[in-house]
Amino acid sequence: MPIVQVELLEGRTHEQLSKMVKDITDVIVADVGASREAVHVILREMPKDHYAVGGVLKSDQ
């Protein structure tokens, strides 16, 4: 049972997240031969004020 965890900043649409989950699942099925039903994808969205690059919060950019 492959489990894929994706951490990303909030702000994507439902449609974008849905496509990403489908694409990730397709790659796992194709590359490792897992069944679609066995692939689990966990999305962890975080607020832009909980992530910084180079000492600057993404919410301040």
**Residue runs with pLDDT of under 50 for 5 or more positions:** none
Secondary structure tally: strands: 4
Describe the main β-sheet briefly: 2 strands, parallel
> Shape, please?
elongated
- Average pLDDT confidence is 97
Distance between the termini: 39 Å
Beta-strand share of residues:
25-35%
Please explain how this structure is put together.
- The structure is a single chain.
- A hairpin with a 2-residue loop joins β3 (52-53) and β4.
- This protein has 1 helix and 4 strands.
- The longest helix is centred in the middle third of the chain and has 19 residues, at 14-32.
- It is of the alpha+beta class and 61 residues long.
- The model has no long low-confidence stretch (mean pLDDT 97).
- The termini are far apart.
- It has one helix at residues 14-32, and strands at 3-9, 40-46, 52-53, 56-57.
Summarize the structure.
This protein has 61 residues and is α+β, with helices and mostly antiparallel strands.
What's the arrangement of secondary structure elements?
Elements: E1 3-9, H1 14-32, E2 40-46, E3 52-53, E4 56-57
Parallel strand pairs: 1-2
Antiparallel strand pairs: 3-4
